[in-house]
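Let us practice reading a record.
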Amino acid sequence: MFTLWTLIEASLLCLNAVCILHEERFLAKFGWGRQAGQQDFGAPSAKDQVLNLIRSIRTVAKIPLIFLNVIAIIFKLLLG
């Protein structure tokens, strides 16, 4: 059944997936490395904005994500 908990758990898993993407190992293979997001002038493209979003999520959500994962694990252990 689709509940609020499954929605929260799915968003937590997606945040975990974004946080573990490694730029040099994974993203650079597809042309999404550090150098791909450097543009001298003009409006940033959609690709540059997605790269900035990934970097921002990785920077801001790293510590809170640890606590959210611990809470989710405890919740799963207690309530199944």
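A brief commentary: The chain has a mean pLDDT of 84.
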